[in-house]
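Lecture 7 notes: from sequence to structure.

We start with a single chain of 131 residues. Read the sequence below before looking at the structure.
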Amino acid sequence: MQINHLAIVVEQLDDALKFWRDALGLELTATEENPEENVNIGFLKIGESSIELLEPTNKESGIGKYLASKGPGMHHICLEVDDIRAAMDRLRDHNIEFINDEPKTREDGIKYCFIHPKSAFGVLVELYELP
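Now the structure, written as tokens:
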């Protein structure tokens, strides 16, 4: 298991890149639109992991509501696992609650799910299984 990325909610991706890319010098490795989650994403490489900047495209989306209620800042930590279903089964054996009971699959084949913050001491944790 390793940290895949740390996700940060931002109001405007272009404005956030002025700090993370231009001022800090982190490499922007990709951007993507994720219509299913109503978010634009910027990926910045840092060591073996990434920082994921999340800009909501819809105020009623999960990220949009998060931004409206909590403001910009840390959103979640993503842990990379070899087998997401096995990881979820193990966590269920420890009475861990999930936001989504089944993993979702992105277009690029990455499987992911979220652990509810109340099961992780207030931290939203995402699990990733790479294809």
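Helices lie at 13-23, 62-70, 84-93. Keep this in mind for problem set 3.
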